[in-house]
Amino acid sequence: MTNLGQSLFALGALSIMGTLGLNANKTIIAENTRINSGESGITAVGLAQSLVEEAMGKYFDAKIDTAITGEITLTSQLTPVDQLGPGPNENYRAGTNDFNDFDDFNNLFLVYKSSNPSDTASTSGSDWETIVPSLEAKYFVKTKVTYISVNVSNIPQANSASSVPTWHKKLTVTVINPTSRDTLVYPAIMSYWR
Questions:
Q1: Pairing state of beta strands 139-149 and 109-113?
Q2: How, if at all, do strands 160-161 and 168-177 pair?
Q3: pTM for the whole structure
């Protein structure tokens, strides 16, 4: 009888230990998922903010870059809506042929990759790719630049895309982490005050 009691006690102890072990593993996995999601969000915001700051450091419009002070007085003198984007021979981070104005960032597709061998392959259609050793996953950054109408009397219509040039441009940066399927949309507005 003593051996049976000890065996049942040992089985009970093993059962409890197994349950505790499984629960501990579930908790660790859930916490790692939460941490990775948080890191993904922080990385996405950092990438978007960095690109916005870079764009904000450029001229409002290519026409302003080449204009004599005070020469641009009408919105019709600005780049037409259908021509927003890089000019001829302008490429992202191309040294002397780098972007010179805000709307050059229109329809840009950047790829930030980890140093994992599975992430280092080229991505079709990208304008620029770089490996960032501290990244844990690949990130796609896509941009869109539009002129916007600023209508303070009708707040729901404020910041809507304009079909004609205005003194305000909006850069929308979308950062996608295809691994976690998280997406961040980060807008920024640049205005020209004459």
A1: antiparallel
A2: unpaired
A3: 0.77
Q: Can you tell me the distance from the alpha carbon of 106 to that of 180, in angstroms, rounded to the nearest whole number? A: 26
d(CA 87, CA 49): 24
- Determine the Cα–Cα distance for residues 92 and 42; give it in Å rounded to an integer: 24
- Chunk the chain into consecutive blocks of 10 residues (it has 194) and report each block's average pLDDT, rounded to whole numbers: 71 75 66 59 90 94 78 90 92 84 95 79 83 84 92 64 92 89 89 82
| Terminal-residue alpha carbon distance, the chain | 97
pLDDT at 28: 65
At residue 177, the pLDDT reads 86
Instruction: Name which of 194, 49, 26, 175 is nearest 112 in CA terms.
Output: 175
Beta bridge pairs of residue 20: none
> DSSP of 55-122, one letter per residue?
HHTSBS-HHHHHSPTT---SGGGSPPGGG-S--TT--TT-GGGS--BGGGGTT-EEEEE-SSGGG-S-
Cβ proximity of 139 and 47 under 8 Å:
yes
